[in-house]
Amino acid sequence: MTRAWAWLVALALAGWASPGGLPPAAEGARILGVFGHIGKSHWDVFEPLMQELARRGHQVTVVSHFPQAAPRANYTDVSLKGSLTDFSPVGQIDVTEMKVDNMWDVYNEHLLLSQLAVTGCEVAFAHPDVQRLLRSNETFDLLITELFTTDCYVAFAHHYNIPSIGLSSCMMMPWAYERFGNPQNPAYIPDLFHAHGMQMSFWERWQNSWKILLDNLAYEYLYHRPSEQVVRRYFKDLPPLKEIARNVSMMFVNTHVSLSHARPYVPAVLEVGGIHLPQRKPLPKDVKEFLDGAGEEGVVYFNMGSMIRATSMAPEKRRAFLEAFGRMGQRVLWKWEEADMPGQTPNVKTSRWLPQFDILNHPKVKVYIGHGGLLGSTEAAHAGVPMVAIPIFGDQRANVQNLLQAGMALKLDYHDVTADSVLAALKEVLQNPKYREGARRVSEAFRDRPVGPLDAAVFWTEYVLRHNGAPFLRNAVAADLAWYQRWLLDVVAASAAAFVLAVLALRALAARLLPHGPIAHKLKGE
Ligand SMILES: *[C@@H]1O[C@H](CO)[C@@H](O)[C@H](O)[C@H]1NC(C)=O
Ligand SMILES: *[C@@H]1O[C@H](CO)[C@@H](O)[C@H](O)[C@H]1NC(C)=O
Ligand SMILES: *[C@@H]1O[C@H](CO)[C@@H](O)[C@H](O)[C@H]1NC(C)=O
């Protein structure tokens, strides 16, 4: 907080000291937020920004599946809640059905995610309250929307003729780079859906290049074109969605360099990792007693996230975890959605819901077994707790790769879960100091910033408002190049052609000059 104040004072002084002062503050702007994706963990990243903008005096209208529990000043909900009921099974995932870490599963995920994206667009635009909003005389100054699996919601930016900002609750999607002219060099930028680290062998770079290309093709045919068809039914004379999407002013990405590693971002891309971190609250009494009462050896915290039902785990996997925990001195706190657990050992406590961030910050928590979701990983990074990570789907593979590279986690394949492998992994992370050391290093780098992620996001939101969309932030030149120009394929082809021509010319010349050529024959008097 003190940092944020220091920064605000510095900003005010800079504005006062510069000859023209700052442009007028973007006060009381009318901001429209549109979030059609139904994943709660995504909304957890967007909600703090929308709330904070309202708190700072902007008039905020939010179309989403997650209306505020109680009315909030300057904040109007257009609730889509209950409109995507057909997809409720997607809300929770059965671990036993996931074939973990298989390349072809990524394409099954594309099928599922694209269906969800396109249905989400359809449901949002067809919603009577959204139609009422569109037909009203209401005007806005800025659109904030999620930039994830569909561009259909940027149609609002065109409809109201306003600039827009994209938010991403995960790392940048493979199809989000091009529009900002952001480098996406497959030599060192691993595809989000696959678990390559940044350092890749020749074979990995080969795979990564093709995976980025395939993911972009999947986006075009599974996500983009069907979204475009939906939007055309609701807006007349709309330019192609891609053209509107290329005008998105900025993108706020839920990562931080301490965890996602240095990579090139154009000024339009802002890392706001940690923006979702909640205010610390006192722990519930039973949890506090369980943690406080643990001995020196501490507590293992086990949570596979909100999307994966822990209870759907195959019985032999559950028994494997329990057997490993039974052989350990630590207490174990396990997120488990049912009242009791068959075979539960005395050192295990289960609960349907656990205040994860407060638990991770408890000094007795020594290791976190998790699926490598970005929010949980970020919370572990902030708290400096090392992990045993068991990635299941989506961006988890890539997040876990980042945790490994940062030296704060050990990866365990879900397939390989046995009592022995769980015990070995936990022992290694608990006993080898390098993991705790790595987590501490990441934690210190993660927290040390000139300004907190929420303040930064608000500053840049108002910056976009003040500068009419600030189109200069994106690399328009790169974004407007054709793909073969961007990859210099025309230059390589022309150089190769010039080389071939030069070789042919030299050969022809040599044929004339050298022993068997006509000159040689003449010289010999033939
Ligand atoms: C709502 O916005 C107005 C300015 O538009 C501001 O004065 C007021 O403080 C805001 N209310 C709250 C509760 O933040
Ligand atoms: C918008 O419509 C409402 C009634 O629906 C009216 O009270 C208001 O004055 C109108 N505002 C503008 C700017 O036309
Ligand atoms: C994109 O922005 C430019 C410059 O502001 C504008 O001329 C153009 O019409 C916009 N394109 C779309 C499709 O909104």
TrEMBL record:
<keyword id="KW-0328">Glycosyltransferase</keyword>
<keyword id="KW-0808">Transferase</keyword>
<dbReference type="GO" id="GO:0015020">
    <property type="term" value="F:glucuronosyltransferase activity"/>
</dbReference>
<protein>
    <recommendedName>
        <fullName>UDP-glucuronosyltransferase</fullName>
        <ecNumber>2.4.1.17</ecNumber>
    </recommendedName>
</protein>
<dbReference type="InterPro" id="IPR035595">
    <property type="entry name" value="UDP_glycos_trans_CS"/>
</dbReference>
<feature type="signal peptide">
    <location>
        <begin position="1"/>
        <end position="17"/>
    </location>
</feature>
<keyword id="KW-0732">Signal</keyword>
<dbReference type="Pfam" id="PF00201">
    <property type="entry name" value="UDPGT"/>
</dbReference>
<comment type="similarity">
    <text>Belongs to the UDP-glycosyltransferase family.</text>
</comment>
<dbReference type="InterPro" id="IPR002213">
    <property type="entry name" value="UDP_glucos_trans"/>
</dbReference>
<dbReference type="GO" id="GO:0016020">
    <property type="term" value="C:membrane"/>
</dbReference>
<dbReference type="InterPro" id="IPR050271">
    <property type="entry name" value="UDP-glycosyltransferase"/>
</dbReference>
